[in-house]
Amino acid sequence: MGILKTILAAYSGVLRTWSNSAMQDRSTALRGPKIQLEKHLRVISVLQWILSFLIMGAACTAALIYLFCTDFWLIPALYTLWFIYDWNTPKQAGRRASWVRNWTIWTYFRDYFPIRLVKTHNLSPSRNYIFGYHPHGIFCFGAFCNFGTDVNGFLKEFPGIRPFVTTLAGNFWMPIVRDYLMSVGICPVTRTTIDYILSQNGTVVLKNRKGFVKVALQKGADLVPVYSFGENEVYRQLVFEEGSQWRRLQEKAQKLLGFAPCLFHGRGLFSPESWGFMPYCKPITSVVGQPITVPKIENPSKEVVDRYHTMYMDSLRELFDKYKTQFGLKESEVLMIL
C-alpha cells in the first residue's frame, strides 16, 4: 500500500510538471506574436509622424488637385472654401482635440524610444509660461510626445497648464496637415499666435527661437527651461565645418526658410543595422526646470532683455549639469550654447 501511494505521488508530480511546462510553453507562444505586434505598432506610430512632415502636405495637395479633375470635384471645392474661411484659426491657438491627443498610437510612439517627462518644480496655473525647449533635434520627438500629446501625463503633473507647441508657419499652408497639427495643440511660431495664446492664459513651448525673452517680458510670462536628454542621439547628423561652402549654404537656407536643412540618417525601417530615416531607439528624457519669474514690461530695454536672457541661459546650464549624469552623459560633458 505504501509503495502504491509513493507511485501515485510521483505520477502526480510528473503530471504537475508536464502541466506547468505546457502552460509556460503556451504562454511563451502567445506572448511572442504579441511582442512582435507591439514592435510593429511602435514603428508604424513613429513612421506616420515622420511622413506627416515629409510628404503628407504634398500628398494631400496633389490629392485635392486630382479630385478637382474628377466627378468628385465638389469635395475639394468645399474644403477649399473652408480652408479660406478658416485661414486665421491656427494663429488663434487652433482647435485642440483631447481625443486626438489621447490616441492609443501615441503610447506606442512614446515606447518606441522610450520618451519620459520629468517634473522638477510646481507651476502655478495663475501664471503664463514660455517653455524654451533644448535641443529640438530633427523632428522634435520629445517636444511633441510630452507637450503635444497627453500620454506622459503633462496635464496631471501640471494641472491647469495648457501647452501649445509651436512650429514653422509654412506647415499651416498645407491642406489636411494644418488640421492634424492643430488637433494636438501645435500652432505657428508667429508673434500674433504667441500673443494670442499668452492672452488666453496658455503656455507656449518654443523650440529655441530667438526673441522669446523679449516676448516674455512684454507679456509678463515666466520663462521655463526644458532640456531634453537624448533628443540629438536618435539621428546621426553630418555637421559641416565652420566657414565651409556647405555651411554657408546651410546658413543662407536657414535665413530664407526659417530652418537649417541638414544631412542625417537613422536606422532602417526593417533592420536597426541598416541606414534609413527611422530614428534609433534611444531614450529621450525631457526635464522641465524651475520657472524664472519675469515682470511685465511693455517696452523692455536691451539691457533688461540681455539680463533675463543671461538668467535663462544660466538656469538652463544648471539644469543640464544637475541631471546630465542621470541620463547617460558624463560628468565632464559641458553644455555649449551658440
UniProtKB/TrEMBL annotation:
Keyword terms of this UniProt record: Acyltransferase, Cytoplasm, Endoplasmic reticulum, Glycerol metabolism, Lipid biosynthesis, Lipid droplet, Lipid metabolism, Membrane, Transferase, Transmembrane, Transmembrane helix
GO BP terms, alphabetized: glycerol metabolic process; triglyceride biosynthetic process
Subcellular location: Cytoplasm, Perinuclear region; Endoplasmic reticulum membrane; Lipid droplet
Associated pathway: Glycerolipid metabolism; triacylglycerol biosynthesis; Lipid metabolism
Molecular function GO labels: diacylglycerol O-acyltransferase activity; retinol O-fatty-acyltransferase activity
Recorded catalytic activity of this chain's protein: an acyl-CoA + a 1,2-diacyl-sn-glycerol = a triacyl-sn-glycerol + CoA; 2-(9Z-octadecenoyl)-glycerol + (9Z)-octadecenoyl-CoA = 1,2-di-(9Z-octadecenoyl)-sn-glycerol + CoA; 1,2-di-(9Z-octadecenoyl)-sn-glycerol + hexadecanoyl-CoA = 1,2-di-(9Z)-octadecenoyl-3-hexadecanoyl-sn-glycerol + CoA; 1,2-di-(9Z-octadecenoyl)-sn-glycerol + (9Z)-octadecenoyl-CoA = 1,2,3-tri-(9Z-octadecenoyl)-glycerol + CoA
Record-listed E.C. numbers: 2.3.1.-
Protein name as it appears in the record: Acyltransferase
Enzyme class: transferase
A GO cellular component entry from the record: lipid droplet
Family named by the database record: Belongs to the diacylglycerol acyltransferase family.
Regions that span the bilayer: 41-59
Organism of derivation: Anguilla anguilla (European freshwater eel)
Domain of life per record: Eukaryota
Topology relative to the membrane: Multi-pass membrane protein
InterPro entries noted in UniProt: DAGAT
